[in-house]
Amino acid sequence: MAADAAAQAAGLRPGMPAAKAQVLVSGLIVQDADPIADAEALERLALWALQRVAPIVAADPPDGIVIDSTGADHLHGGEAAMIETLIGRLAMSGVTARGAIADTWGAAHALARFVADPSVIAPAGHGAAVIDPLPLAGLRLPPGMAADLRVLGFERIGDLLAQPRAPLILRFGPELGRRINQALGELAEPIEPIRPADLIEVQRTFAEPIGAAETIARYVGKLVAQLCAALEEKALGARRLDLLCHRVDNRIEAVRVGMAQPVRDIKRLTRLLCDQIEQIDPGFGIELMALAATIAEPLQRRQIASSLIEVATPDISDLVDTLANRVGERAIYRAAPVASDVPERSVCRIPAMSPDTGATWPSHWPRPIRLLPHPERIEAIALLPDHPPVSFTWRGVRRRVKRADGPERIHAEWWKRDAELAAIRDYFRVEDPSGERYWIYRAGNGEDPETGSHLWYLHGVFG
Amino acid sequence: MRPKPAIESLRAQIERIEGRSRRATSVLPFGIPEVDSRLPGGGLARGALHEVAGGSNGAIDGAAAGLFAAGIAARTTGKTLWCIAKPDLFAPALAQAGLAADRVVYVEAGDDKTVLACMEEGLRHGGLGAVVGEIAHLSMTASRRLQLAAEETRSIGIALRRWRRHTDAYDFGVQTAARTRWRVSVIPSETLPVPGIGRHRWLVELAHVKGGESADFEVDACDEQGCLALPAELVDRPAAAEGWRRGASG
């Protein structure tokens, strides 16, 4: 029997007899386990991860998905951001997920299941230290073997690693040694990536393994040309391309590039892939290269302005793609206005290639070009309730205020949080005798303590 | 001040010898004759790298220098690529300097090296009006790469120098391949007859210009179109009295 969070709150535990559970909770609906449907759902989830996270993804039945994130985490802004987003997005669709990033499949498997923290990132080159304190079940041993080992007094993986290996293998068979070696990374454990049936994929096998960057680049060009022909037949453009290089030592090196809009331009796709070649480690040689359009979307032909009157607006989507694949999709963006008077909430980030909105901010009050990420406390001498300060001290420097403008009163957004019900900020633009201009505010209206603490803050610097 | 025709033809000869078949360089004028006359060609050269830094505290926050760059970018056509190392740029202020939100694409590059790579990529592309990169250390080699990338296209490259500490700002004196070098410092704003702050005012120092002489100007900050202006009380002053020009200050 399995139990979700609600069932556990009612006092049910996995492994409990169904009859006992029905006695504990009246009106309990018991559903039969459906391993086939579970496996199919896991397969679907793996496909979802393949399209969004990384090129090498496989289902790890009964309850896991294994992802080789090498060569894909840069698109998500690093490993930490990637795992946070992944767990967050799964939570939004109602799946409570736990994740771990480690050097080997075995270690990540154990960390994801037996560490309290739902998202664990083991440092690169972590060795055996991270899995030492975990229970034996983390080693993916055949059923029964973990129990037998526990009878012999082994509780944690560390206990097992400290023992000489030969007598253990003699007693429990080679499977134990294999699993330990896989967890430690001493034995390679290739991930067989799932391939959806309708995936547009082209591949090329080499009689003689290739390794030089120029050779890889040449074959990337040939593969892209083939793939574009395949895409053209279906009138599609690629949004995401995965290049899988199968090495002679049975490892797969993967490279993923993402595009902001569907693309079917041979030159452009080749360039994007060739930028990433230095990330491919050919080892002793590559024997098979496969290029797949993991996400393909309909691509309409567009008329390009060719008349003498219209001036064609230069298309920068190729530049955006190049930069996004270099610094990450999140790091390239445009700013768009949000209808909010609170300065730090008035800007949101939108994808760089989203259509022009034409919207802008109200321009009746000047805004500083540099906005501090967090307003900084300043000591100010001011006449309450509504005069600008006579002088203030910021970062240890006292500045006399020669000229000032304000106050610009900004009410907090009471519909967002209770704490903002009565909060007010009074913003002033102040200038010191040397001409430095700052944007400072007082929390509160200067009279009513309910509206704020009456402390002064510096929020921005004008040019 | 204008170079003589003989010198012009000599320059053209030297350029031919150097193998730089520069296309007819177009310029982006500031619209202020006093400033434009100091720049070769009568404006800021397109397809070239320019350096902008702030004076005193502006060396760290790069506020006035940033707006100066925004004003230049606003007067170009097409989009602007703004490579930043620290996300403290406030987009509404750029919109108030004439650079609408739809026209700016930001790239958040973590370090100087990535900023340089992104700038180079942007300059090579050619479809952008201006490429601005906030950068602390700019070596001769790096600036040369950017300058060569810019020469292939008509984009204006602006290296917005911004340092972590005041002591690092001495780096600004080091020679780079940038066509011009500007230092923009804030000075007290326009005096109003009532209490308040008038139009912001800057001291713009043209510290270095290739094929020209350095100079400094006191100007009113960017308006909604990104145009600078000469302060009204200076415009009406007799031309002979050049007393308003202040000496170069650090």
From TrEMBL, chain A:
What processes in GO biological process is this protein linked to? DNA repair
GO MF terms, alphabetically ordered: damaged DNA binding
Q: Which UniProt keywords apply?
A: DNA damage
Domain DNA polymerase Y-family little finger per the UniProt entry, residue ranges: 202-304
Q: Which SUPFAM superfamilies match?
A: DNA/RNA polymerases (SSF56672)
Report what the protein is called. Protein ImuB
Automatic annotation (TrEMBL), chain B:
- Taxonomically, the superkingdom here is Bacteria
User: Mind telling me which InterPro entries this protein's record contains?
Assistant: ImuA, P-loop_NTPase
Q: What is this protein called?
A: Protein ImuA
Give the species.
Answer: Rhizobium subbaraonis
